[in-house]
Structures
1.
Amino acid sequence: MSLDFLFNPKSVILIGAAHTEIKLGGVVLQNLLNYGRPVYPVNPKYDELMGIKAYRTIQDIQSPADLAIIMRPAVEVPTILNELEGKVKGAIVVSSGFAEVGESGLQDEVKKTGARLGMRLLGPNCMGVFNPIRKFDTLFIARERMKRPRKGNVAILSQSGAIMVSLFEAIKASNTGISKAVGYGNAIDIDESDLFEYLVEDRETDVVVSYVESLGDGRKFIDKARALSESKSLIVLKSGKGASSSAAAFSHTGRLAGKYEVFASVLKQFGIREAQDFDELMDASKALSYQRPVKPNSGRKTANRVCIITNGGGSGVLAADECMRHGLEVVRVPQNKLTTLKGVFPNFYVLNNPVDLTAQVKDDDYLTVLNELKDEYDGFVIIALPNIPGITQKLAELLKGFREKFNKPLVSHIPSDGISGRIIALLEKARIPVYPSPERAVKGLKALLS
Amino acid sequence: MSLDFLFNPKSVILIGAAHTEIKLGGVVLQNLLNYGRPVYPVNPKYDELMGIKAYRTIQDIQSPADLAIIMRPAVEVPTILNELEGKVKGAIVVSSGFAEVGESGLQDEVKKTGARLGMRLLGPNCMGVFNPIRKFDTLFIARERMKRPRKGNVAILSQSGAIMVSLFEAIKASNTGISKAVGYGNAIDIDESDLFEYLVEDRETDVVVSYVESLGDGRKFIDKARALSESKSLIVLKSGKGASSSAAAFSHTGRLAGKYEVFASVLKQFGIREAQDFDELMDASKALSYQRPVKPNSGRKTANRVCIITNGGGSGVLAADECMRHGLEVVRVPQNKLTTLKGVFPNFYVLNNPVDLTAQVKDDDYLTVLNELKDEYDGFVIIALPNIPGITQKLAELLKGFREKFNKPLVSHIPSDGISGRIIALLEKARIPVYPSPERAVKGLKALLS
């Protein structure tokens, strides 16, 4: 069964709807009011909620619906599912109080009930769905408390609602946007693998960010992740890596975290990108959202040759250190190219890799180096400390032109301050991602090379 | 000889002063005009520069001075030093074009000349000195292009001018401030070790941030770093870790980077803090600038027991993963404490470590946990996702009160968005550092535990 009903339901039943946004059931109802399709709120005390017809019981709803959202205490969920029989394709069980607090028996009952009724389940203990393209939003956080990210090409799949919220904030700060987002919690039925499978065909998604705490079926995960990686850029962040944190992950969603080292080595074996922490996840997804990753050329096995062009020596060295940590090679500039560059630049420019154009740099120098070295490297890190007269908005124009002409992976580090704001905005508009440290720029570039 | 003349000279000679801020010698002159003590600009073409008396030659200056700043081409530097004989205690050689571009012979000549004349040298190829407490500023970056950080308790020692500038930006973003900053470049005479020694007695400095690319005398470095660590919080970031990046570091300052692994193991052996990258350096220095590190209590060897209190499960798990990477132990909550907490909290709160107060949290819950567990742990990570109704400004007041009363290491992760701005500001005013990701909060806490 396609998961379309989850992202774009023809109609929605909200069980546990409330009349006020002080209650979570009211927040969700408010968010659903923007959805252009029928919403049937259920609450035994009301005939009308927030200006639309409400239903005292599920039985009172005569129209068939696609999806139910359940926001009632955990113990009521099995009964509610039975009442939904034949009315919906699936349900989002927002309620918590299941395996994550030791109530595994209740969780099993919910799982079995869903299976018996042929009803797909998201959750329980989950955040639900956000689809900005369809304006479908089941999150129990008011818009005033969390501005939603804009539309974009990044899909977010998060086992944790908290991380989904944090990812939203980071997405906004990255000048990227969301195609679809799902917080799937305890994953008793629909899990990351099902969502990977669904997203293979999703034309609105280029990048898939997957935050996983624990895996149900490891083999299925790998199969679906590999299939997805063929058409989209997938990045996985696995948490619960150690004994104590894996216990925490278990508590959080009630699934076993498994042995991390095994998981990581399998990901690596199949070429599936893994981020080590939250920042790396966002650094990679920003780059992948802006640019397409490249394959190695001229018979080499990997595209991993990086050139760093900087106007600050130290920043270049930090970037080179980070390259080393990621298996990226900061190979020397070929002798003939070096000779050419020496002919056009002052003698105090340091023409190695990193190419250090020093505080005396002019905007055009970056383009001179890029043009000369474009065929020698797989990707470039541009570091521009904007506190000196030679760095102006023109740099953004030059890099934009280069990027459009040659389509080479190109990321940038520019420290954020008053003067750099405009340059950063121009670069990011030109789909050149800018990062707040040399190391983070390299993490971004790494995602584009394979 | 004390290095006071470098940070607080009685008077300054500026060789290579210019009449306009388009030239670097003009920028430095402009910055020196704010210094309340005599400045003698030297330029063969002017009798007056920027409203003060200028000198055609060094010989024309009759008054003795403390310090010279040299901003003339590299080849002129030996002659200039000879002309300064007997006039100054030392000189900042800003000029580049020495060992970093292969001119080691010229660099040696400068070194020998300084030694023969008994003149201490900073540089060459360096940024110079910034001392906000004395308003002494030799940086060749105009204030309009780089707003200076405010006064504070962090000293910055950077071999790289670029990194010094980036550190300034990061210091401003951290709501911390600078006691003294030195960019010392090729370090032919005054190096990080000399500066460590000087800072031992500096009452304005609590934290020393040391960015090092290459070491002259490794033993001296370790001796002085150990001595400094007894009274101040020292954090070292060593770049040039690998073959290619260490070649880059050599190009950059003309000193050999040495074998990184040896350096790192010696630092560890002597308990000197090392940061792995720029962000970690800043995360640690922010925490150390806000709070004093603690020693282990009750006969334990290390203070490494961490409690994570969160309202988002996933964020807690990521923090726990990061603790594991740093050798911090996320030990379980003792059974008797667990029983107490279970008695006061709803059953869907997940009472492990991390303590997950869920999206239903109220501000007071954090304080309840802190009060109950304060003697069980060495430090606390507070994670508050502010998008839910239960998190308000009151949280900042409660944490402030706890921190003032118990003086326990306490760091926080709050994603930055519209609603959280006020809470973050209040917390940082109360000297509780707030970080943009769970992992970075842990990096901050790590610096406070030893």
2.
Amino acid sequence: MNRQSGVDIDLGNRCSSNAYNWARKTFINRQQKPGQLLQGLDGAFSNVMQFNDVRLGISSDGIGTKIELAERTGIYHTLGHDLVAMTADDLAANGFEPTSLSNILDVDILDYEIVDQLMQGLHAAAGLAGLAVTGGEIAELGSRIGGYGSRMHFNWCSTALGYLPDRLVKPVDGSLIREGDMIISLASRGFRSNGFSLVRRIMTDNFGPDWHLVLYDNARTWGEVLLTPSLIYCTLINTLLTQELNLHGIVHITGGGIPDNLARVLKQSGWGAVIDKPCPALAFMLQVQTMGRIADQQAYRLWNMGNGML
Amino acid sequence: MNRQSGVDIDLGNRCSSNAYNWARKTFINRQQKPGQLLQGLDGAFSNVMQFNDVRLGISSDGIGTKIELAERTGIYHTLGHDLVAMTADDLAANGFEPTSLSNILDVDILDYEIVDQLMQGLHAAAGLAGLAVTGGEIAELGSRIGGYGSRMHFNWCSTALGYLPDRLVKPVDGSLIREGDMIISLASRGFRSNGFSLVRRIMTDNFGPDWHLVLYDNARTWGEVLLTPSLIYCTLINTLLTQELNLHGIVHITGGGIPDNLARVLKQSGWGAVIDKPCPALAFMLQVQTMGRIADQQAYRLWNMGNGML
């Protein structure tokens, strides 16, 4: 239990395992049919769907409570970058090239201007990621949706689809990692879309309920700094893979941070890793960590601390 | 503006158009690449993605405020049928065979038992639809999610993927409809996942805040009757298509009812239609309509009135 953020991580893991166990029992529904799930060398199912000679991956995620930053600052056009980053970069981390994204926007009451800014941002982010927005749904759910302030409140999630290039025998899963491999870190420029429950609690404790208005430096408020949109790495990753650079493992640093996400990829080969020169944490991240009196070990599990992809 | 339900349909349409216009500008991102969007004979983009010789469709939707029925009755294992029906049957209505579904469950605070019942229901519904649950995400969003009662509140949506069988030259879109074609209606057994804002308002006006506890007949409460899960038609539709039965148009009756959804399909050919023997509306639907003093014309736009697919 992470008491500071109010999120019970163990319960979350148990619920996710439950959902996966029920889902796994449905894989047989596509056995020997288009869309069948491929099995890895170890017999376990991978997240690869096969249609004739086409191998596809799918990834679903939302941008969580980072949305409150947009509600606080009134800046809505950057969230599309966070939305695309969460799913497209998850696909890229397995070697898939993201091609298509479908999004679902749940709102309490519609506000045309806000929807326009969100979709404009999604359009821009889709361009950076090189994918097409091929589907979408906007649902008005009234009091089932809450948030900050008096304008439209919403939750936003997406499902991205990607294909595995022919030159990859299988998804990039870390199993090819071997002694002497080098880890390259891609710098992030802020928080992605995870760990915001605790960030918001720290900010409230330190600056009071209107913390987003407090100046961070001469140019920006804390609200603006924390809203900094996610960098999207998938086009770089996919270009590297196309250049026949053999990446043995790719780690997208989201919830769980470097320790959990790197460990999952390293587990495939059994090797360990030394990170002697990580990208430095951004100054405002360190300030949040200090204000919250969060130990380094915990901070690197909660946030990316300046490293977006390994 | 539908004042009775509090939902502004015109604003909803404008926001959806806005989102589609931004999305359309992203189609160029996949031009001449895997996942490119196919153009129809009229030059407009269809919802078909092409990967080599594989043609895929994608559909996203949620189950809206029908979830409140589960919160009121404490019955959670049937909602999976509604979730699958909304997206899988939308794909089937275009001739796609649904293969894979990814779901996103947004909750305020997790309840393991409820998650288990939801996922058990999704597993059962996936079996009926013949698809695999290939992805999922559970997000804890605290006060961004609201609902009825004191247990876990949630919103649930899914994105389904399907492929177009080789024997179909293009998706079933109504363009082949010609004079003399016959419409066959597939009966529904209740409300699907649309029009519930007004249903709930009518129930509250007539029976007070605890309307779900009021007996509908000797065996069931109103809460249980309104929760009746959606029938899933996609396996039947896909079997008919495989049997080389030439369906010229398929209409999934969701929001907009028979008039709007049938009109969209008929528009492709320019023909009209006479429906002289629709499936009869279910008794409890008629009772809701009477209690709400809803004219027939409006009722058939809001709800399926006993006809799930045409």
